[in-house]
């Protein structure tokens, strides 16, 4: 396992995330207060790209089902959330039945913590061990 040059520190502003792939790994680098962290860039629930979600402090929120993970440890801090659709009672009956069925399918899916990756900063270049 070697280190891969990902980006310069200036390419990932504070409070943002960056997606990259190396050796079959999809990895997200997050800049939290000038410190960089690398975790698997797939939600531990339904595999959505976390880099497309929201970073708030050390917590990244999945854009699909809103599970939350700590980018410093990879640990899940909040499980997926049920969401409601405004005016759902006005939707066609077959569509609401589909949504209910989809919810029943997803309900038993376990949410796993994220793999973390070692980072080194060498001359303002972010390097991640893959």
Name of the CATH superfamily: Rieske [2Fe-2S] iron-sulphur domain
Tell me the total number of β-strands: 11
List segments where confidence is low: pLDDT < 50 over at least 5 consecutive residues.
Answer: none
Q: How many structural domains in the coordinates?
A: 1
In terms of structural class, how would the helical and strand content be classed?
mainly beta
Tell me, what's the shape? elongated
Task: Give a written overview of the molecule.
The protein is mainly beta. It has a single domain, classed as Rieske Iron-sulfur Protein. Helices cover about 10% and strands about 40% of the residues. The chain is built from one helix and eleven strands, in the order E-E-E-E-E-E-E-E-H-E-E-E. Strands 2-3-4-9 form a four-stranded antiparallel sheet, with no helix packed on it. The chain has a four-stranded antiparallel sheet with strand order 5-6-7-8, with no helix packed on it. It has a three-stranded antiparallel sheet with strand order 1-11-10, with no helix packed on it. Strand 3 (about 25-30) and strand 4 (about 35-40) form a beta hairpin. It is elongated. The model has no long low-confidence stretch (mean pLDDT about 90).
């Amino acid at each position: 396992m070697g280190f891969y040059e990902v980006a310069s520190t200036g390419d990932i502003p504070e409070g943002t995330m960056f997606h990259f792939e190396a050796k079959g790994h999809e990895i997200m680098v997050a800049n939290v207060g000038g410190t960089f962290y690398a975790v698997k860039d797939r939600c531990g629930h339904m595999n959505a790209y976390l880099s497309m979600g929201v970073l708030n402090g050390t917590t990244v929120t999945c854009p699909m089902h809103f599970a939350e993970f700590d980018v410093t440890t990879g640990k899940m801090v909040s499980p997926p959330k049920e969401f409601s659709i405004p005016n759902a009672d006005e939707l066609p009956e077959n569509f609401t039945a589909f949504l209910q069925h989809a919810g029943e399918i997803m309900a038993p899916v376990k949410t796993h913590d994220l793999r973390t990756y070692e980072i080194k900063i060498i001359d303002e270049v972010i390097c991640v061990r893959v």
